[in-house]
Write a structure and sequence with these properties.
two-stranded antiparallel ribbon, alpha+beta
Length: 102
């Protein structure tokens, strides 16, 4: 397919009055299974407020896993929908050709 399933993940750490707010998100990724046919997945994001003194690195690692997991699930759903649409279009084209042969 040539496209990467692993999206670019970026993290942002913001100070708050009680600790930090973490935001982890993926970008939008466009997949091109065949020429001139694409589908997009993303973006996926998650935010978490941590109290002062919490382990930011550990929280970011866990959030990255969650966001990547959601991205993978979204990819599977979009791919399934894409393939169903291709099969439907192929079926309709075949039916149309058969109807115009006679």
């Amino acid at each position: 397919m040539g496209d990467k399933l692993e999206p670019r993940v970026k993290a942002k750490v913001m100070q708050t009055a009680t600790g930090v707010r973490l935001r982890v998100e993926t970008g939008r990724v466009t997949f091109t299974p065949v020429a001139y046919n694409t589908f997009e997945v993303g973006s996926v994001s998650i935010e978490l407020d941590l109290p002062s003194g919490a382990d930011v690195g550990e929280a970011l690692a866990e959030m990255d896993e969650v966001v990547s997991g959601h991205f993978g699930k979204a990819y599977a759903r979009r791919l399934d929908s894409y393939l169903k649409a291709l099969r439907y279009n192929d079926k309709k084209l075949r039916e149309d050709r058969e109807a115009h042969r006679g």
